Amino acid sequence: MKILVNGAWHDTEAVKLAVALGELGYGDQVVATAVNGEFVGAEARAHTTLAEGDRVEVLAPMQGG
Amino acid sequence: MLELYGATLRSRLLLGTARYSSPAVLKEAVAAARTEVVTVSLRREAGAERAGQGFWSLIRELGVRVLPNTAGCHSVKEAVTTAHMAREVFATPWVKLEVIGEDDTLQPDVFGLAEAARILCGEGFEVFPYTTEDLVVAERLLTAGCRVLMPWGAPIGSGRGLNNLFGLGALRAHFPHVPLIIDAGLGVPSHAAHAMELGFDAVLVNTAVAQAGDPVAMAAAFAQAVEAGYAARAAGPIEPKDFGTPSTPVIGQAFLG
User: Fold this and answer.
1) Does A38 touch chain B if contact means CB atoms closer than 8 Å?
2) Phi then psi for A35, rounded to 5 degrees?
3) Of B147, B150, B136, which Cα lies nearest the Cα of B195?
4) Which residues in chain A are contacts of B48 at CB distance < 8 A?
5) Which of A14, A22, B2, B166 could form a disulfide with B9 if both were Cys (CB 3.0 to 4.6 A apart)?
6) Is B33 helix (H, G, I), strand (E, B) or coil?
7) N-to-C CA span, chain B
8) How far apart are CA B161 and CA B57, in angstroms?
9) Catalytic residue numbers of B?
10) A32 to chain B: which residues are within 8 Å by CB?
11) Does A4 touch chain B (CB under 8 A)?
12) Collapsed DSSP state (helix, strand, coil) of residue B10
């Protein structure tokens, strides 16, 4: 299925968010996630199910004012 | 000492971490500013680039407190969701709450701000709202549970200084016991000194330091200005007058005409 990660489409067979993040190279990174505009905490990623067309945001610490 | 949500700080200069030419310059500027609080944000991370991971390692090395912002959020929902994400990543209940209402001036949407503050304070966040000098909005934010306010000096990144001295003075006088931090719009150290002389508790600076010709020297200059302004306020400045008053004694002056 296709999911939209940080604005770019990705093909994935992963059903769970945690698995998809691992596939995309975020496995060991300090990131925060949201699916379809709703925050998904780190502990909830393993049992958060993805569906076709889901919008996933993966955010990391960045410079800010 | 400055107390913000129970944290006691020696420095009254908060520093933003954006727009520096390199991580090394940022690191030196933080040291030169002698700041204990830096602002940070959350942005999209490409899995392979790991830019955010490097930045986070740098910040942790600095040993300062972080104040995550919700910069760029235009709605209550965006701001609240960003705050949740920031709390998890940065492991702090602190959030510099920004809900932008106008793109030319980056003026806060104070209606959305008050609503987002109400939600986040109710969830245990310690909210630092980026607001205007409006007294009614300030009261609303305090009622929502905020215990610190961050009024703007001028539009973010403008370097204009304190645009509304009367309004900021009124805010200070109206809420004498609420920590007030001037956030945004300062351009040079004299602006920071002026804010402190008016009785503000601290200032937050980013662009004025990061975009200076020598950011590290400018960070040090802001630190000195904040200390000088704070000391001057404590020392009791004289009231301005409209006419001159001789400082040298008139009595005993020779008649030489």
Assistant:
1) yes
2) -125, 125
3) B150
4) 25
5) B2
6) helix
7) 55
8) 33
9) 96
10) 42, 84-86, 88-89
11) no
12) coil
Can you give the C-alpha Rg of chain A in angstroms?
A: 11
How far is the first Cα of chain A from the last one, in angstroms, to the nearest whole number?
A: 38
Q: Do B56 and A61 touch (CB under 8 A)?
A: yes
Overall residue count recorded for chain A in this entry: 65
ipTM of the complex: 0.94
Chain B hits for A42, Cβ within 8 Å: 88
- From the list A33, A39, A62, which residue is nearest B52 (CB)? A62
What is d(CA A39, CA A37) in angstroms, rounded to the nearest whole number?
Answer: 7
What is the distance between the alpha carbons of residues B223 and B11, in angstroms, rounded to a whole number? Answer: 8
Phi, psi of B54 (to 5 degrees): -65, -40
Phi-psi region of B102 (alpha: psi -120 to 50; beta: other; left: phi over 0): beta
Report chain B's mean pLDDT, rounded to a whole number: 96
Q: Which two tokens stand for residue B54?
A: 């490097």
Helix (H, G, I), strand (E, B) or coil at B219: helix
Residue B178 and residue B147 in contact, taking contact as beta carbons nearer than 8 Å: yes
- What DSSP designation does B71 have? T
Q: Which of B15, B25, B77, B88 to mutate to test the interface with A (most CBs of A within 10 A)?
A: B88
The one-character DSSP state at B1 is -
The 10s digit of each residue's pLDDT in B101-121 is 999 999 999 999 999 999 999
- C-alpha distances (whole Å) from B66 to each of B14, B24, B40, B251 are 10, 18, 7, 58
Q: What is the average pLDDT across B146-155?
A: 97
Distance of CA A31 to the CA centre of its chain: 9
Looking at chain A, which residue has its C-alpha nearest residue B21? Answer: A63
pTM value? 0.94
